[in-house]
From TrEMBL, chain A:
Gene3D superfamilies, per the entry: 6.10.250.1090, Nitrogenase molybdenum iron protein domain (3.40.50.1980)
Region Disordered, residue ranges: 438-460
UniProt-listed GO biological process terms: protein-containing complex assembly
CDD domains per record: Nitrogenase_NifN_1
UniProt biased composition (Polar residues): 438-451
InterPro entries listed in its UniProt record: ChlB/BchB/BchZ, Nase/OxRdtase_comp1, Nase_comp1_CS, Nase_Mo-Fe_CF
Name used for this protein in its record: Nitrogenase iron-molybdenum cofactor biosynthesis protein NifN
Keyword terms: Nitrogen fixation
UniProt GO MF annotations: nitrogenase activity
TrEMBL record, chain B:
UniProt keyword list: Nitrogen fixation
GO biological process, one term: protein-containing complex assembly
Gene3D superfamilies with a match to the protein in the record: BFD-like [2Fe-2S]-binding domain (1.10.10.1100), Nitrogenase MoFe cofactor biosynthesis protein NifE, C-terminal (3.40.50.12380), Nitrogenase molybdenum iron protein domain (3.40.50.1980)
Family assignment from sequence similarity: Belongs to the NifD/NifK/NifE/NifN family.
Taxonomic lineage: Bacteria, Pseudomonadati, Pseudomonadota, Alphaproteobacteria, Hyphomicrobiales
UniProt-listed SUPFAM superfamilies: Helical backbone' metal receptor
CDD domains: Nitrogenase_NifE_I
Species of provenance: Bradyrhizobium nitroreducens
Function: This protein may play a role in the biosynthesis of the prosthetic group of nitrogenase (FeMo cofactor).
Protein name stated in the entry: Nitrogenase iron-molybdenum cofactor biosynthesis protein NifE
């Protein structure tokens, strides 16, 4: 059982954490025709926007209420009103998703109140869904913003259903955590469909940020789950939540519609996927398709091939709680030692990470610990690149943001197949590192007690 | 120590800014920050601008006082290059939490400064103010002063919280911080008559190193570069330079002008983008240095270097001429402000679409700058479908623009090249221009385009979004042509001023209602041209068209 501690430093160096509001906007990006809106100064939006664009290499919709100094002090009603009207007129969104920021929370803007008043004054907005979530920058982290926002979407957008209502046995709600990529969501979709199930993903980043070329260009999101589909999620037979962060949304769904849920904290690794397959088989009443029986064998074989390289590796990992728990557990199960662990925010999974200590801290902490404990595999997001080059150890980029490599949206870790490919990637990194940096030399094993002295043979 | 609002006023009063000089007293007071439109704004905040301007100082610790968003969402995102320290790429932030908001963040900031000094011992720390601590009244000037005294190290407050305005205001506020706290605080070991400052150059992709070897060859010493690959000490003694070059972006014009005022360092505005501009800039540097005491033979050597480099570059560009024959470039940017890039593209045989300007008279230059400036602004407002049609109508073969239009161009299977600051290649100086040609050639002739333009086997060609978009636009055009009242509505709905969202109809109505004859009159009544001012030309055209029949009638 890991001890969870929080860094005592006054100065965060090389942050691992990103802010809560953009985690909220990220969730709104998985809705069709959506315009995420941050209630704050324009920088709050532009920094987040730049990060998303660099990660996905896609145009990303995101707007700002553009709070000036004066507006911040006097309160932002006019700015919220104008922003909503402007977005409504210019981009015709199907939904506007609003998150607060540090500036507007410090003032204490009552945005829910604003929205009621705006609706009164502008009846043309009657049918336009407006979802507001309070997400101050000075609390929590990216993952929390996502968690709160998805839970709020359920509360506002899903039509209530009586607990005893007749449900569609084939329809399944999937509530994915923000650690899953569009590629992961597509993999889950395929798996569920192979069981004859009809999944609804909330949110569905695979529809909007999978890098496709859209039929119709819109200034809002180019895909994702529609507001109409969300409204009917109460008719599903089950909700599957992926990642502990999604428990809140799953509970909200159950409270509102009576749909029972099953939480899968992990979908990377052999055993978690066995459990997942067994559950899908149970709720669909179908046997596990042959395809997945074969994939299980492939994963098992990949583990056999890769354990020579991954076993005994000392892992340094910096990630948000759910991604951290998933990856570190899978590697622990492959024989890696989880040595240096840093995360961003509190979570019930942290104490179950297979390590001594989990630190809520930054990448400086991770770098120091990795160095002190001789770690030889680093996993974190792209901001770890400076630490990796100083540590000179193999570096696998995982999580958000990944701005210095391509294909972030398609990097997969779920399912037998996703786990298999991830294991190959990691093992290959280790092999490449050994070839490049650890080739034996005549002096590799010479003991250094007496220096590197060589006593010349005596001539007789 | 002046207050933040006084500093902002002072920056707005900048007499070195050409745009400012044309404004009335009242307009100047209002400043050059265009009022941002909620729900329709793009771009960074003043903090962003300050950080961009100063972060390229490589040996300084840049400490951001604020909640995690300001630094955590943005660090290590600029492509400046360093020849030495990597400290500038590390990120330092106080990551303020709820307790700090309630009790104030000054103590945390002080402790953070202490930690940074203990761990990294930088020659100086720049402390950036952000919105939240500004709101709760954290006095970073006082904290920095106390820390500087206590630790015996420069701790420089950069007072530019995001909500005071946009990025370009932040650039200038950063400059003010340097003027107030750093420049002139140290002395160089020695000076020479060949010492210059380069101001407003960030060494993105290391591109300044495309020009530096030439300066080295001429024996010209860069005493301080503000701020690309800059070092704190060089900045502190930069007041001993003999001359300065203000790189064409106006980001730090206040620094150049005030250094002239305070220390008598003459400056000129120049650019190293394009062959002609590079040569002009080298000449101008030599001229200013000679004026300030360098030997006159510097000019001869400079001319020799220019002649050699120009000959080499033009010879290298010659190779591209057959490849670029009949190829059309759509150049859309506010980023490349250099006429001579256009000249070089034309010299290489590329046709620039959207302008018929061929000769480089001064008026032609102004005209093309204005044209491109407007389009750059217009494009941010365009729907992707409109942009696709524009590309199609222009029959362009490649589009050169800033990052924002990238995805539409690429998804329309249109070769595209980034010429704004996010790009990963240096395009500076003579070498850089040739590099730009190479990149254009690579993009134009990539065999991938032909494949991507083919429809999928299950599409009959009419189903691609491109075909649909064109069909839709054509249908719209036909509908408009068939219906005079719709045509009139559409004509009147044409947006003229993109900053203030003013359409042609409202401008015409205002002209009629108030008998307006001048751009200023139109501005007063409609707010058009009250933003960036790029649409003034369009307003003049509208006024001229309105007035022409009246004048005829009068005759």
């Amino acid at each position: 059982m890991a001890i969870v501690t929080t860094s005592k430093k006054a100065c965060s160096v090389n942050p691992l954490k990103m802010s809560q509001p953009i985690g909220g906007s990220f969730a709104f990006m998985g809705l069709r025709g959506a315009m995420p809106l941050l209630h704050g100064s324009q920088g709050c939006t532009s920094f987040g926007l730049t990060l998303f664009v660099r990660h996905f290499k896609e145009a990303v919709p995101m707007q700002t209420t553009a709070m000036s100094e004066v507006a911040t002090v006097l309160g932002g009603y006019e700015n919220v009103e104008q922003a909503i009207l402007n977005i409504h007129n210019r981009t015709k969104p199907e939904i506007i998703g609003i998150n607060s920021t540090g500036v507007t929370e410090t003032k204490g803007d009552d945005v829910e109140g604003f929205i009621r008043l705006i609706r009164q004054r502008h009846p043309q907005l009657e049918k336009l869904p407006l979802v507001y979530v309070s997400t101050p920058d000075f609390k929590d982290a990216f993952q929390d913003g996502w968690e709160k926002t998805v839970a709020r979407m359920v509360e506002v957008l899903v039509d209530p259903v009586d607990a005893g209502a007749v449900r569609d046995p084939a329809r399944i709600n999937i509530l994915p955590g923000c650690h899953l990529t569009p590629g992961d969501l597509d993999e889950l979709r395929t798996i569920l469909e192979d069981f004859g199930l009809k999944p609804s993903f909330l949110p569905d980043l695979a529809g909007s940020l999978d890098g496709h070329i859209p039929d119709e260009f819109t200034p809002t999101t180019i895909g994702g789950i529609g507001v109409d589909e969300i409204a009917t999620m109460g008719q599903s037979a089950w909700t599957i939540a992926v990642g502990a962060q999604m428990k809140r949304a799953a509970e909200a769904m159950q409270a509102r519609t009576g749909v029972p849920f099953r939480l899968f904290e992990r979908l990377c690794g052999l055993i978690p996927n066995d459990e997942f397959m067994a559950f899908l088989s149970e709720i669909s009443g179908r046997p596990v398709p042959a395809k997945y029986r074969r994939q299980r064998g492939q994963l098992a074989d990949a583990m056999l091939d890769a354990h020579f390289h991954i076993g005994g590796r000392k892992l340094a990992i910096g990630a948000e709680p759910d991604l951290l728990f998933d990856f570190s557990s899978m590697l622990h199960e492959m024989g890696a030692e989880v040595e240096a662990v840093v995360t961003t925010t509190a979570s019930p999974v942290l104490e179950r990470v297979k390590t001594q200590e989990v630190l809520i801290g930054d990448l400086e902490d991770l770098e120091e610990r990795a160095k002190a404990r001789d770690c030889d595999l680093l996993i974190t997001h792209s901001h770890g690149r400076q630490a990796a080059s100083r540590l000179k150890i193999p570096f696998y980029r995982a999580g958000f943001p990944m701005f210095d490599r391509l294909g972030a949206g398609h990097q997969m870790s779920v399912g037998y197949r996703g786990t298999r490919d991830l294991i190959f990637d990691l093992a290959n990194l280790v092999i490449a590192d050994r070839e490049a940096n650890h080739q034996p030399t005549p002096d590799t094993w010479r003991t250094t007690d007496s220096g590197l002295q060589v006593v010349p043979p005596q001539l007789h | 120590m002046s207050s933040l609002s006084a500093t902002i006023q002072d920056v707005f009063n900048e007499p070195g800014c050409g745009k400012n000089a044309n404004k009335t007293e009242a307009e100047r007071k209002k400043g050059c920050t265009k009022q941002l439109q909620p729900g329709g704004a793009a771009g960074g905040c003043a903090f962003d601008g300050a950080k961009i301007a100063l972060q390229p100082f490589t040996d300084v610790a840049h400490l951001v006082h604020g909640p995690i968003a300001c630094e955590g969402n943005s660090w290590d995102n600029r492509g400046s290059a360093s020849s030495g320290s990597d400290l500038w790429r590390r990120s330092f932030t106080t990551d303020m939490n709820e307790t700090d908001i309630v009790f104030g963040g000054e103590k945390r900031l002080y402790k953070a400064i202490k930690e940074v000094i203990e761990k990294y011992d930088p020659p100086a720390i720049f402390v950036y103010q952000t919105c939240v601590p500004a709101m709760i009244g954290d006095d970073i000037n006082a904290v920095c002063k106390a820390a500087a005294t206590k630790f015996g190290k420069p701790v420089i407050p950069v007072n530019s919280p995001g909500f005071v305005g946009p990025k370009n205001l932040g650039n200038k506020l950063a400059g003010e911080a340097l003027l107030e706290h750093v420049i002139g605080t140290e002395e160089p070991d020695y000076t020479t008559p060949y010492d210059i400052n380069i101001i407003g150059e960030y060494n993105l992709s290391g591109e300044f190193w495309q020009i530096k070897p030439l300066l080295d060859e001429l024996g010209i010493r860069i005493l301080s570069c503000i701020s690309g690959d800059g070092k704190y000490r060089e900045l502190a003694y930069s007041h001993r330079a003999k001359a300065a070059m203000m790189v064409c972006s106006k980001a730090m014009i206040n620094v150049a002008r005030k250094m002239e005022e305070r220390y008598g360092i003459p400056y000129f505005e120049g650019s190293f983008y394009g062959i002609q501009d590079s040569s002009d800039s080298l000449r101008e540097i030599a001229r200013l240095l000679i004026e300030r005491g360098a030997k006159a033979e510097l000019m001869d050597r400079t001319e020799a270097v220019i002649a050699r480099e120009e000959a080499k570059a033009w010879a290298a560009i010659e190779r591209f001429k057959p490849r670029f024959k009949d190829k059309k470039v759509l150049l859309i940017t506010g980023g490349v402000k250099s006429w001579s890039v256009v000249a070089a593209l034309q010299e290489a045989g590329l046709e620039i679409v959207g302008t018929s300007v061929k000769k480089s008279t001064k008026e032609d230059k102004e005209r093309i700058k204005e044209l491109m400036g407007q389009d750059a602004h217009m494009i941010e407002d365009m729907t992707p479908r409109e942009m696709y049609k524009m590309l199609k109508d222009a029959r362009a073969d490649i589009m050169l623009s800033g990052g924002k239009s990238q995805f539409v161009a690429l998804k329309a299977a249109m070769p595209w090249l980034d010429i704004n600051q996010e790009r990963c290649h240096g395009y500076m100086g003579y070498i850089g221009m040739v590099k730009l040609m190479e990149e254009i050639e690579k993009a134009l002739y990539n065999p991938m385009w032909a494949q991507l333009r083919k429809p999928a086997p299950w599409d009959d060609g009419g189903e691609t979004w491109q075909a649909k978009a064109m069909a839709q636009m054509d249908a719209q055009a036909a509908e408009i042509a068939a219906d005079p009242s719709l045509a009139e509505t559409t004509r009147r709905a044409k947006k003229i001023c993109f900053c203030k969202t003013v359409d042609l109809g409202s401008i015409e109505d205002a002209i009629t209602a108030h008998g307006l004859t001048t751009v200023d009159g139109v501005k007063e009544h409609t707010n058009a041209s009250g933003g960036c001012g790029a649409c003034k030309g369009r307003l003049e055209d509208i006024l001229a068209a309105r007035l022409a029949p009246l004048l005829q009638a009068a005759e």
